[in-house]
Amino acid sequence: MSDSLFTDSDLPRQAREILPGVIHLPGWLDVTQQLFLVRQFQLFAQRGIPPHSPDIFGKKMSVQMTSLGWHWSNYEYTQSVPELGGAAPLPVPDWIVRLGRRAVEDAYARPNLQWPVEETERTIRWARSYTPDMALVNYYSPQASMGMHQDKEERSSAPIVSLSIGDTAIFRAGNTETKNHPYIDLRLASGDLVVFGGPSRFMYHGVPKILVGTAPTDIGLHSAGLTEGRFNLTLRDTGLAALATAGLPLK
Ligand SMILES: O=C(O)CCC(=O)C(=O)O
Ligand SMILES: [Fe+2]
């Protein structure tokens, strides 16, 4: 039997703490939940900020984005989008907040985390009050990728929740100091959850590659007019609402 019949995708996919505070829960969403999310992404795109590829310092990203709660572009959060005809983000629905809380709790409520226990207990308490006020929907065509970056425009150190739907992606989980080694590449398949918080909240991360043709056929991509590609739903607590309430400048 040829060795090439076996690849790492044949290995069991287990819940794992990839790095301290970075938890991967494969298959966290079932098919019905994925179908629901694909349908919601269509509605967000029709009713809210139209999917677009932001210009980052004059260079267009290959990913298409829409968002709820806040608009993100050029390393800044705003409430209106002049370049898109003044479109404003739709509010973050309650079901997304509940999904985020469940994700943080499921990720950190497990034994033997490398991340010290007291920190973990604190994070489980956070999970109950986790209130993402921003949801980003990224769409990756098979050629799209995302360079190594930190999510650091937020004024909160609450964890980031990330869900994958469609084609499998290679997700690069790095370190908090540089865009380079050390990093770990992992496969994120449709339905997978990654939560990164605590000591890895500000890690560099990116998506170097989409594995074409790996999306399940029963999650509604076809009825959304898509034959391929990957959606990523990222939830964030920007911490900006609290600043605005206190009358402080947002920048
Ligand atoms: O697509 C992903 O898995 C990561 C997306 C991401 O890092 C971001 O939107 O900031
Ligand atoms: Fe990110």
From TrEMBL:
It holds the Pfam family 2OG-FeII_Oxy_2. GO terms for molecular function: broad specificity oxidative DNA demethylase activity; ferrous iron binding; oxidative RNA demethylase activity. Binds 1 Fe(2+) ion per subunit. One of its GO terms (biological process) is oxidative RNA demethylation. Its cofactor is Fe(2+). One of its GO terms (cellular component) is cytoplasm. InterPro entries: Alkb, AlkB-like, AlkB-like_sf, Oxoglu/Fe-dep_dioxygenase_dom. Residues 131-239 form the Fe2OG dioxygenase domain. Keywords: Dioxygenase, Iron, Metal-binding, Oxidoreductase. Fe cation binds at H149, D151, H205. Signal peptide: none annotated. This is Alpha-ketoglutarate-dependent dioxygenase AlkB. It comes from Rothia terrae.
